[in-house]
Specification:
four-stranded antiparallel sheet; alpha/beta; 19 strands; about 500 residues; 14 helices; seven-stranded mixed sheet; about 30% helix
Length: about 500
C-alpha cells in the first residue's frame, strides 16, 4: 500500500512539474530517479518503446484525467491580441503501428479510442517504414499507454501487434476548441463565454464586464472556430422596450448586419442592427403556430418581422400583424412577399394599444357578431413583448359593446412576460389579473418559455378573455326601444299646433 502511495505521489510530481513545460522539452531527473526506485516492483509501469522512433524525452505515466493535456501553452494567459503561433505546444500521446492496408479497419474497430481533435490527423506516416502508419490514440482512453483486453482482442483478429508507442504530437491553434482557447487566455477562475446566438452569418455575444478587455480576441476566436460566421458583435446596451433593438459593437469580421435566417423551414431576411430577432424562440414560435387551424384568425400585436404571422398565414389562417418599429414593419412586409403570403396578412405600423382599439376591435366586433354556434373559427391574440405586454391587457376591458358571443368564440390571448419572482407562474398570473380587473383562477395556463438570466424567466400566459371583461353591456335606457303606440287625434292636433 505504501508503495502505491509513493508511486501516486511521484506521478503527481511528474504531472505538476513536467507536463506544464512539455513544449520546452525540460526534464526532471530527480523525478525519474524516484520513479525508477519503484518501476521494477510494479509490472507495466513503463511501456517498452522502440529505439529511435518518436520519443526522446524520458518515458512518463500519463494521467488519464489530466485536464491540462489539451490546454494551450501557459504563455497565452492574458493575451488580448490574438497570436495564433503562441498556442503551439507538444504533448505525448499513444500511437499504434499498423500496416497501411488495414488502417481503415483499425480506425473502425477502435473508433472510441482514436484521438479526436479539431483539424488533427488521426493517422500519420511512419518515417522508418513507408508501408506502415501510426494511428494516434486518445491518452484519456488508453491509461498508462496500455490497451485494454477488448482492444487487444480486436487487434489480434486484425493481426496487429498491440504494442503502443509514444508519439510527440504538436498541437496548434487549429487543434484547440474555442472553450479551451478562451479558458487559457482569460484570467484563472473567471467565467469563460464561448456561447453565442447565431443570426445568419452573425454571432451575437453578450459579454460580461470582466471579459471586455478580451472582447476582440474572443470575437476572432468565435469567428475562426465556427464556419459560416463572418461577423461577431457584442451587445452594449439593454434592449429598448419601444423598438426592441439595441446598440452593438463589432468585435470581428465585416460590418454587414443584413442577414438571412431560416426558422421552422421558413426563410426571413432582416437587418439585425434595426429589428428584434432571437433564434432561441424558434420552439416557442412553433408551439403557438401548432395551436392554429386553417380558417382561424390571428392578431399579432408585436409582430416583429413575422415569426408568428408568416407561418400562421401559411397554415391558411387570416392574419393581422402589427409592429410599432418602422424597420420591423418594412421587413415584415418584405418577408410576407418573400414567403408569398402578402395577400393573407394585413400589416400595420401602430402602437399596440391603438392596434387593439382599432383594427382588432373592428374585426372582432364584425366577426363575433356573425359567428354561429356551429362555426369553429378561433381567434388568437399574440402579445410577445415580455417587458411590457402584461401592461397592455387593460385594453381588453370593455373593448366590445353588446351581448357576449358564445363562450367558444371568445378570443384566446397568449401574453408573454418576464418574472424574477420565486414563483414566476403565480407572479405573471397576478399581474395579468390586476390589468384585467378579474380573476383568472382555473381559466388560464402558463408555459415556461426559457430561462433568460439567473433568476429571470420568460413565460407565456394563455387564457380566453372572460366575457364580463371583454364586453360592455348596454345601459337599460340605451337598450330600451322607443315606445310604439297608436297616434290619437289629440296627438295630431298637438303636432299641428307645434308645426
Amino acid at each position: 500500500m505504501r508503495t502505491l502511495w509513493r508511486l501516486g505521489y511521484c506521478a503527481r510530481l511528474l504531472k505538476t512539474n513536467h507536463f506544464r513545460t512539455a513544449a520546452s522539452n525540460t526534464s526532471f531527473p530527480a523525478v525519474w530517479m524516484l520513479l525508477a526506485q519503484y518501476s521494477g516492483r510494479i509490472p507495466g509501469l513503463f511501456v517498452v518503446v522502440k529505439k529511435n522512433t518518436f520519443f526522446t524525452m524520458p518515458e512518463t505515466v500519463e494521467d488519464k484525467t489530466n485536464p491540462e493535456l489539451y490546454l494551450p501553452h501557459p504563455r497565452v494567459r492574458g493575451m488580448t491580441v490574438l497570436n495564433r503561433e503562441a498556442f503551439k505546444r507538444t504533448v505525448v500521446v499513444p500511437a499504434l503501428k499498423v500496416k497501411k492496408e488495414i488502417v481503415s479497419s483499425v480506425l473502425k474497430s477502435l473508433k472510441q479510442s482514436v484521438l479526436q481533435r479539431p483539424g488533427l490527423k488521426r493517422v500519420v506516416e511512419d518515417p522508418e517504414d513507408e508501408d506502415s502508419r501510426f494511428v494516434i490514440l486518445n491518452p484519456h482512453k488508453i491509461p498508462e499507454f496500455s490497451l485494454g483486453e477488448s482492444e487487444q482482442q480486436v487487434l489480434k483478429e486484425l493481426s496487429v501487434h498491440p504494442e503502443v508507442s509514444k508519439y510527440q504530437l504538436e498541437l496548434t491553434y487549429e487543434n484547440f476548441k474555442s472553450e479551451e482557447i478562451l479558458r487559457a487566455v482569460l484570467p484563472e477562475g473567471q467565467e469563460v463565454t464561448s456561447g453565442f446566438s447565431r443570426v445568419g452569418h452573425i454571432a451575437h455575444l453578450n459579454l460580461r464586464d470582466h471579459q471586455l478587455p478580451y472582447r476582440h480576441l474572443i470575437g476572432q476566436v468565435i469567428m475562426d472556430k465556427n464556419p459560416g460566421i463572418t461577423c461577431v458583435v457584442n451587445k452594449t446596451s439593454i434592449i429598448d422596450s419601444t423598438y426592441r433593438n439595441f446598440e452593438m459593437e463589432l468585435l470581428a469580421g465585416e460590418n454587414k448586419l443584413v442577414t438571412k435566417v431560416k426558422e421552422n423551414n421558413i426563410a426571413y431576411e432582416l437587418d439585425f442592427s434595426k429589428v428584434y430577432w432571437n433564434p432561441r424562440l424558434s420552439t416557442e414560435h412553433g408551439r403557438i403556430v401548432e395551436l392554429l387551424r386553417p380558417g382561424d384568425v390571428l392578431f399579432d400585436v408585436f409582430a416583429g418581422i413575422g415569426p408568428f404571422a408568416i407561418p400562421a398565414a401559411r397554415r391558411k389562417c387570416r392574419v393581422f400583424a402589427n409592429d410599432l418599429n418602422p424597420e420591423s414593419y418594412t421587413w415584415l412586409l418584405h418577408n410576407c412577399k418573400l414567403n408569398k403570403v402578402d395577400t393573407k396578412v394585413k400589416v400595420f405600423n401602430m402602437d399596440g394599444r391603438d392596434f387593439l382599439r382599432g383594427p382588432v376591435r373592428e374585426e372582432l366586433s364584425k366577426e363575433l357578431l356573425l359567428l354561429k354556434e356551429e362555426q369553429k373559427t378561433a381567434f388568437h391574440i399574440v402579445m410577445n413583448l415580455p417587458a411590457l405586454a402584461v401592461e397592455f391587457l387593460d385594453v381588453f376591458r370593455h373593448l366590445l359593446v353588446g351581448e357576449p358571443c358564445s363562450p367558444a368564440g371568445l378570443p384566446t390571448v397568449h401574453c408573454y412576460g418576464f418574472s424574477k419572482h420565486s414563483n414566476p407562474t403565480r407572479d405573471i398570473q397576478e399581474r395579468a389579473e390586476a390589468s384585467l380587473g378579474t380573476s383568472l383562477a382555473g381559466r388560464c395556463s402558463t408555459f415556461l418559455v426559457r430561462n433568460v438570466a439567473p433568476n429571470k424567466e420568460m413565460l407565456c400566459l394563455s387564457f380566453q378573455i372572460p366575457a364580463d371583461v371583454l364586453y360592455k353591456r348596454p345601459c337599460p335606457d340605451e337598450a330600451k326601444p322607443a315606445s310604439k303606440r297608436l297616434c290619437t287625434s289629440q296627438d295630431s292636433s298637438a303636432e299641428e299646433l307645434l308645426s
